[in-house]
Amino acid sequence: MGKQATKAMMAGMAIALGCCLYLLAPNPTIGAVLFSCGLLCVRIYRLNLFTGKIQYMTTTEYPLLFYIVVLFYNLLGAVFMWWVTRYLVADLAAPIAAAKAAQPFQIAFMKALGCGMLMSIATYPESPLWMCLICVPAFILAGFNHCIADIFYALAGGQIGWAFAATILGNICGGILMSNMWEKKQSNI
Fold this sequence. Notes:
By secondary structure, the protein is mainly alpha-helical. It has one domain (2-188): Glycerol uptake facilitator protein. Helices cover 78% and strands 0% of the residues. The chain is built from 8 helices and no strands. Helix 1 (2-24) runs parallel beside helix 4 (64-101), helix 4 (64-101) packs across helix 7 and helix 5 (105-123) runs antiparallel to helix 6 (132-141). It is globular and about 50 Å long.
Protein backbone atom coordinates (compact mmCIF):
# COMPACT_ATOMS: atom_id res chain seq x y z
CA MET A 1 0.00 0.00 0.00
CA GLY A 2 3.06 2.30 0.29
CA LYS A 3 3.26 3.09 -3.43
CA GLN A 4 -0.49 3.71 -3.58
CA ALA A 5 -0.28 6.06 -0.58
CA THR A 6 2.59 7.99 -2.19
CA LYS A 7 0.62 8.34 -5.42
CA ALA A 8 -2.37 9.53 -3.40
CA MET A 9 -0.34 12.12 -1.49
CA MET A 10 1.11 13.41 -4.76
CA ALA A 11 -2.42 13.68 -6.18
CA GLY A 12 -3.49 15.79 -3.21
CA MET A 13 -0.47 18.02 -3.74
CA ALA A 14 -1.30 18.35 -7.46
CA ILE A 15 -4.89 19.42 -6.73
CA ALA A 16 -3.68 21.89 -4.09
CA LEU A 17 -1.23 23.28 -6.65
CA GLY A 18 -4.21 23.76 -8.97
CA CYS A 19 -5.92 25.67 -6.15
CA CYS A 20 -2.89 27.95 -5.82
CA LEU A 21 -2.86 28.61 -9.56
CA TYR A 22 -6.55 29.46 -9.42
CA LEU A 23 -6.09 31.85 -6.51
CA LEU A 24 -3.08 33.60 -8.03
CA ALA A 25 -4.55 33.99 -11.53
CA PRO A 26 -5.57 37.45 -12.75
CA ASN A 27 -9.24 36.43 -13.10
CA PRO A 28 -11.47 33.44 -12.26
CA THR A 29 -11.77 32.13 -15.83
CA ILE A 30 -8.01 32.00 -16.39
CA GLY A 31 -7.64 30.55 -12.89
CA ALA A 32 -10.17 27.81 -13.63
CA VAL A 33 -8.25 26.80 -16.75
CA LEU A 34 -4.93 26.89 -14.88
CA PHE A 35 -6.42 24.70 -12.15
CA SER A 36 -6.59 21.99 -14.82
CA CYS A 37 -2.82 21.57 -14.44
CA GLY A 38 -3.50 19.74 -11.18
CA LEU A 39 -5.83 17.18 -12.76
CA LEU A 40 -3.61 16.84 -15.82
CA CYS A 41 -0.74 15.87 -13.48
CA VAL A 42 -3.01 13.29 -11.86
CA ARG A 43 -3.94 11.80 -15.22
CA ILE A 44 -0.49 11.92 -16.85
CA TYR A 45 1.37 10.46 -13.85
CA ARG A 46 -1.47 8.05 -12.97
CA LEU A 47 -1.81 9.36 -9.44
CA ASN A 48 -4.51 8.23 -7.04
CA LEU A 49 -7.09 10.99 -6.70
CA PHE A 50 -10.10 10.14 -4.55
CA THR A 51 -12.57 11.87 -6.89
CA GLY A 52 -11.07 9.99 -9.83
CA LYS A 53 -10.97 6.56 -8.15
CA ILE A 54 -14.32 6.62 -6.35
CA GLN A 55 -16.14 5.89 -9.60
CA TYR A 56 -14.78 2.33 -9.39
CA MET A 57 -16.25 1.65 -5.94
CA THR A 58 -19.15 -0.43 -7.29
CA THR A 59 -17.45 -1.90 -10.36
CA THR A 60 -14.02 -3.20 -9.27
CA GLU A 61 -12.35 -5.25 -6.63
CA TYR A 62 -10.67 -2.36 -4.80
CA PRO A 63 -11.28 -2.90 -1.07
CA LEU A 64 -12.91 -0.14 0.97
CA LEU A 65 -9.55 0.40 2.68
CA PHE A 66 -8.08 1.52 -0.66
CA TYR A 67 -10.54 4.43 -0.90
CA ILE A 68 -9.99 5.41 2.73
CA VAL A 69 -6.21 5.41 2.22
CA VAL A 70 -6.50 7.43 -1.00
CA LEU A 71 -8.76 10.02 0.65
CA PHE A 72 -6.51 10.28 3.71
CA TYR A 73 -3.32 10.73 1.69
CA ASN A 74 -5.00 13.14 -0.76
CA LEU A 75 -5.95 15.25 2.24
CA LEU A 76 -2.45 14.92 3.65
CA GLY A 77 -0.98 16.12 0.33
CA ALA A 78 -3.34 19.10 0.34
CA VAL A 79 -2.37 19.88 3.95
CA PHE A 80 1.30 19.75 3.01
CA MET A 81 0.77 22.17 0.11
CA TRP A 82 -1.23 24.47 2.40
CA TRP A 83 1.68 24.50 4.84
CA VAL A 84 4.14 25.35 2.03
CA THR A 85 1.97 28.09 0.49
CA ARG A 86 0.05 29.36 3.52
CA TYR A 87 1.54 32.86 3.52
CA LEU A 88 1.12 33.20 -0.22
CA VAL A 89 -2.59 32.42 -0.55
CA ALA A 90 -4.26 32.91 2.87
CA ASP A 91 -5.93 36.24 2.09
CA LEU A 92 -7.01 35.04 -1.35
CA ALA A 93 -8.54 31.81 -0.01
CA ALA A 94 -10.43 33.37 2.91
CA PRO A 95 -13.58 34.39 0.97
CA ILE A 96 -13.79 30.98 -0.73
CA ALA A 97 -13.32 29.16 2.57
CA ALA A 98 -15.99 31.29 4.27
CA ALA A 99 -18.50 30.73 1.47
CA LYS A 100 -17.94 26.97 1.42
CA ALA A 101 -18.09 26.66 5.23
CA ALA A 102 -21.40 28.54 5.30
CA GLN A 103 -23.15 26.25 2.78
CA PRO A 104 -26.09 24.26 4.14
CA PHE A 105 -25.48 20.50 4.05
CA GLN A 106 -27.88 19.83 1.16
CA ILE A 107 -26.41 22.62 -1.00
CA ALA A 108 -22.86 21.44 -0.35
CA PHE A 109 -23.93 17.88 -1.22
CA MET A 110 -25.55 18.89 -4.53
CA LYS A 111 -22.57 21.03 -5.53
CA ALA A 112 -20.28 18.12 -4.71
CA LEU A 113 -22.48 15.72 -6.68
CA GLY A 114 -21.97 17.83 -9.79
CA CYS A 115 -18.23 17.95 -9.20
CA GLY A 116 -18.09 14.18 -8.67
CA MET A 117 -19.82 13.64 -11.99
CA LEU A 118 -17.45 15.97 -13.83
CA MET A 119 -14.38 14.42 -12.20
CA SER A 120 -15.61 10.99 -13.22
CA ILE A 121 -15.90 12.17 -16.83
CA ALA A 122 -12.46 13.81 -16.74
CA THR A 123 -10.72 10.79 -15.21
CA TYR A 124 -12.54 7.98 -16.99
CA PRO A 125 -9.83 5.85 -18.67
CA GLU A 126 -11.26 6.35 -22.17
CA SER A 127 -11.62 10.12 -21.73
CA PRO A 128 -9.02 12.13 -23.63
CA LEU A 129 -6.74 14.37 -21.60
CA TRP A 130 -8.34 17.49 -23.07
CA MET A 131 -11.50 16.65 -21.09
CA CYS A 132 -9.61 17.95 -18.04
CA LEU A 133 -9.56 21.36 -19.73
CA ILE A 134 -13.36 21.28 -19.99
CA CYS A 135 -14.46 19.51 -16.81
CA VAL A 136 -12.20 21.34 -14.35
CA PRO A 137 -13.10 24.89 -15.41
CA ALA A 138 -16.75 23.78 -15.58
CA PHE A 139 -16.83 22.62 -11.96
CA ILE A 140 -14.89 25.64 -10.71
CA LEU A 141 -16.89 28.28 -12.57
CA ALA A 142 -20.14 26.56 -11.55
CA GLY A 143 -19.06 26.79 -7.90
CA PHE A 144 -19.10 23.03 -7.37
CA ASN A 145 -17.36 21.44 -4.38
CA HIS A 146 -14.30 19.18 -4.61
CA CYS A 147 -13.30 17.59 -1.31
CA ILE A 148 -9.53 17.80 -1.83
CA ALA A 149 -9.58 21.36 -3.19
CA ASP A 150 -12.01 22.43 -0.48
CA ILE A 151 -9.78 21.21 2.35
CA PHE A 152 -6.96 23.28 0.88
CA TYR A 153 -9.20 26.36 0.67
CA ALA A 154 -10.52 25.72 4.19
CA LEU A 155 -7.04 25.52 5.67
CA ALA A 156 -5.67 28.42 3.66
CA GLY A 157 -8.69 30.58 4.47
CA GLY A 158 -8.92 29.48 8.09
CA GLN A 159 -12.49 28.15 7.99
CA ILE A 160 -13.96 24.68 7.82
CA GLY A 161 -17.53 23.62 8.42
CA TRP A 162 -19.83 20.62 8.37
CA ALA A 163 -20.35 21.20 4.66
CA PHE A 164 -17.05 19.39 4.16
CA ALA A 165 -18.69 16.06 5.13
CA ALA A 166 -21.44 16.77 2.58
CA THR A 167 -18.77 17.47 -0.03
CA ILE A 168 -17.14 14.08 0.50
CA LEU A 169 -20.51 12.30 0.29
CA GLY A 170 -21.54 14.27 -2.79
CA ASN A 171 -18.25 13.56 -4.58
CA ILE A 172 -18.71 9.84 -3.84
CA CYS A 173 -22.31 9.78 -5.09
CA GLY A 174 -21.47 11.78 -8.23
CA GLY A 175 -18.57 9.49 -9.11
CA ILE A 176 -20.61 6.33 -8.55
CA LEU A 177 -23.57 7.74 -10.49
CA MET A 178 -21.39 8.41 -13.53
CA SER A 179 -19.67 5.04 -13.18
CA ASN A 180 -23.02 3.28 -13.23
CA MET A 181 -24.00 5.27 -16.31
CA TRP A 182 -20.72 4.27 -18.03
CA GLU A 183 -21.35 0.61 -17.17
CA LYS A 184 -24.93 0.76 -18.44
CA LYS A 185 -23.76 2.35 -21.68
CA GLN A 186 -21.07 -0.33 -22.15
CA SER A 187 -23.57 -3.14 -21.59
CA ASN A 188 -25.93 -1.66 -24.21
CA ILE A 189 -23.25 -1.58 -26.92
